[in-house]
Design goal:
- The chain is α+β, with helices and mostly antiparallel strands and 332 residues long.
- The protein has helices at residues 11-20, 105-113, 136-145, 207-213, 223-231, 261-274, 292-301, 319-331; strands spanning 30-35, 39-44, 51-57, 65-69, 77-79, 85-86, 93-96, 99-101, 119-123, 147-154, 156-159, 163-166, 171-175, 182-188, 199-204, 220-222, 244-247, 250-251, 280-288, 306-309.
- The structure holds zinc ion.
């Protein structure tokens, strides 16, 4: 991609350039994907301790990601969009009317990292299963179901100016990149000594890299935090082998997959939270100490610092539109 394109002030002129062709931005657009067949994942909820069954189903083009609470009357639907985020600490929760689903981030990270754009996520409890605290069991299941293109173009949001959210200590900064990538640099940092330790990781989103570098990175907490949750009657079924619990000697009854597994997990969380937008991303993101609330605040505020590239930017004879037409004919 030509970095100079970001110097253009007017979004309209950028769109015009897109339509005239001659920019590599267009090559970043792709067809939407869904699953080939349904797949079920079972486990227990870290928060409630209840057994949970979640079924991922293929969904029609342009319908995005939607949770369905199959245990409630009339099976209410909860779109996986930032507008439906509910503020619950230490996780990403979604709410729509009286229906809610907690801890959606690790499942969403798997879906988004594999570039699955339309999917019905049918869950029979108000929480997604915790599994091993990472995205890996979801990734393996979704790959087993298979992924297939659909006759629709996935929109793309391109960061066109700098944006910073948070405060002096905890922040996320988004800047334009001329490289046509969605890159994340995360720094985990603590005040004073902490058994987890300060650490950093840099990642460029890509399905294969996600599988190699992030998918098995687990959620984490200190023993002090775990004791506090247990005292509140929460997370009683969770054992230190189910995720990473750090005491002064390191992870209890467990071992790290990577030295900086926690910083990597924070990037996994960011990918899941960025999944609450119906588009791909191009931009360079630097985050320090941030968590779910700030991730979602960032994607919401980015609406005013980004350019949306979609099907309307493609010339009629573009290869991608021809592919879409061919798929439409195949389905008809
Ligand atoms: Zn997480």
């Amino acid at each position: 991609m030509d970095a100079a394109i970001y110097r253009m002030e007017s979004y309209a002129s950028l769109r015009e350039t897109m339509q005239q062709g001659g920019t590599r931005l267009r090559s970043l657009l792709r067809l939407q994907n869904t699953l080939i067949r349904p797949i079920v994942v079972e486990g227990f909820g870290f928060w409630t301790g209840e057994d949970i069954r979640v079924e991922f189903r293929p969904a029609p083009v342009d319908t995005g990601l939607v949770f369905v609470r199959t245990d409630l009357p009339d099976e209410p639907r909860i779109p996986a969009l930032a507008a439906h985020r509910d503020s619950k600490p230490r996780q990403t929760s979604l709410v729509c009317g009286s229906a809610r689903v907690d801890m959606v981030e690790h499942g969403l990270a798997a879906i988004r990292a594999l570039q699955i754009d339309t999917c019905e996520i049918r869950v029979d409890r108000p929480e997604m299963p915790g599994l091993d605290g990472s995205s890996m069991p979801f990734v393996l299941a979704l790959e087993e179901a298979g992924i297939t293109p659909q006759p629709g173009i996935r929109p793309l949001r391109i960061v066109t100016r700098e944006l910073r959210v948070g405060d002096e200590k905890t922040w996320i900064e988004a800047v334009p990149t001329g490289e046509g990538v969605h890159a994340i640099d995360y720094t985990l940092e603590f005040d004073g000594p902490n058994p987890i330790g300060n650490q950093n990781y840099r990642f460029v989103t890509n399905p294969d890299r996600f599988k190699r570098e992030l998918m098995n990175c687990r959620t984490f907490l200190t023993k002090g935090e775990a004791d506090h949750l247990l005292a509140q009657g929460l997370c009683r079924r969770v054992r230190p082998t189910d995720l990473l619990v750090f005491d002064k000697n390191g992870p209890m009854d467990n071992h790290l997959h990577f030295e900086n597994e926690c910083a990597r997990h924070k990037i996994l969380d960011m990918i899941g939270d960025f999944g609450l937008t119906p588009c791909d991303w191009v931009g360079r993101f630097t985050a320090r100490r941030s968590g779910h609330a700030l991730n979602v605040e960032c994607v919401v505020k980015l609406e005013n610092a980004t350019l949306l590239i979609d099907e309307s930017c493609l010339p009629a004879n573009s290869e991608l539109l021809l592919k879409k037409e061919r798929l439409l004919k195949k389905i008809a």
